[in-house]
Design goal:
There is one protein chain. The protein is an alpha+beta fold. Helix content is 19%, strand content 41%. A four-stranded antiparallel sheet has the order 1-2-5-4, with no helix packed on it. The longest helix has 19 residues, at 2-20. It starts with a helix and ends with a strand.
Length: 145
């Protein structure tokens, strides 16, 4: 009797998935989420212009350019340097005035595109079911000689 009940329960689940589509289930398992790419930032020299960047994306979403990307930097940038955002990148620029190793955290928050339905968690075009976490952070170090 127990095997029969288990069989019917499994059959109901499979029929439910067939009617709603397996791609939606896979979207939840492989949910879209922001990712800051790991990278070793180039070393700089006191008194010389510095420029490097960190790139990011939204994993598991081919339309990741449609998101709004917001970066913040917490920690110690080398004195004389700043950062600015442009699209999916955060740039570190300036002329460092002090030698040392400067570690900081980059935080990325993304907002879904306008066609994302926040109430239902679905893309209006039916391509996505789950958005996942909209924030991530990672530590980086810039060495100034």
């Amino acid at each position: 009797m127990r095997n029969t009940t288990s069989f019917y329960a499994l059959l109901c689940i499979l029929l439910s998935l067939t009617m709603s589509g397996c791609s939606e289930l896979l979207d939840c398992v492989a949910s879209a989420r922001p990712d800051i790419h790991s990278k070793t930032l180039v070393n700089g020299t006191v008194g010389h212009p510095y420029s490097d960047f960190i790139d990011s994306d939204v994993t598991n979403d081919p339309n990741d350019n449609a998101y709004d990307y917001y970066f913040s930097v917490n920690g110690n940038l080398p004195p004389g340097m700043t950062y600015h955002e442009q699209g999916r990148k955060v740039y570190f620029t300036g002329t460092p005035t002090q030698a040392g190793s400067f570690t900081f955290e980059v935080k990325l928050t993304v907002d879904p595109p306008d066609n994302y339905n926040l109430d239902g968690g679905f893309w209006n075009d039916g391509n996505r079911i789950c958005f996942g976490n909209d924030t991530t952070k990672k530590q980086f170090t810039i060495v100034i000689q």
